[in-house]
Amino acid sequence: MSVFTPVSEAQLIAWLRRYSVGTLAALEPIAAGIENTNYFVTTAQGRYVLTLFERLNAAELPFYVGLMAHLARHGIPCPAPIADLSDRYVSDLNGKPAALVTRLSGRSVESPGVAECGELGALLARMHLAGRSYPAFVENPRGPKWWRVAARAVRPFLDAGAQRLLDEELRFQALHRFPDLPRGAVHADLFRDNALFEGGRISGVIDFYFAGVDCLLYDCAVCANDWCLADARTDGRLDEARTLAFLAAYAGVRPFTALERGAWPVMLRAGALRFWLSRLYDYHLPRPGMLVHAHDPAHFRDLLALRAGAGDVPWPA
Question: Is the pTM of this model over 0.85?
């Protein structure tokens, strides 16, 4: 469980006096995530999620909470930030910037099928269209600039084969940038555990704290690399039926351009590289914390090697 900053009931009761959400009924640590401290909070008025930000500072947070508020206003099922009595979304709690957002119903799906992948594709496209009118700008915080910084930090921990794979992929990605692809606000971390389902439909998309502005197709690649695998544990190849369902549903809402078709294999590799690097960093250079869970980097190392050696990949006709 990732709890870097413990919060007592007494601390939270005092903090909640800034809000009009009723008295505290329950406080429960959330046993997921590796970046921030999260709690389920139940009050006399409703159910919420409390996040204490361990990586982002108060000056950086307006982009993320503002994006969630913007998408929620446009009908996207994402957490809506709660403003305090001073009309602020973010304030200090136990030495960290903190925010309270609505808690969404539903559960994540461990093994999504064709129908769930289609649901995801349509929702992601609606989210991208809604994000086009969001005026704030933050470059993808885990984009190419960060790749180079992270690569230097983790390289001493890698064996010769992994170093070679990393160096070759960084060179490849540097040669394949796509300034003319459609761009906008992207979630950039929409794994299976960040989408909630209820009654076969997506009831919520959560954890926007890696969002930024990047190629919209990159967001699709991050999703496909997690949702559309032949087997999430043993086979990193893209399952054709699920991949096509995801892409076709997306294109039904926001049609892809010809340039995006050509860039698809490169974006799949970029998505695998980003998460290999972040998992390497969290594994080898963890922050001091309490009950911290870091994911095994080997999954995305293997996925990147597979994507780098693959030929054609599924794409709608």
Answer: yes
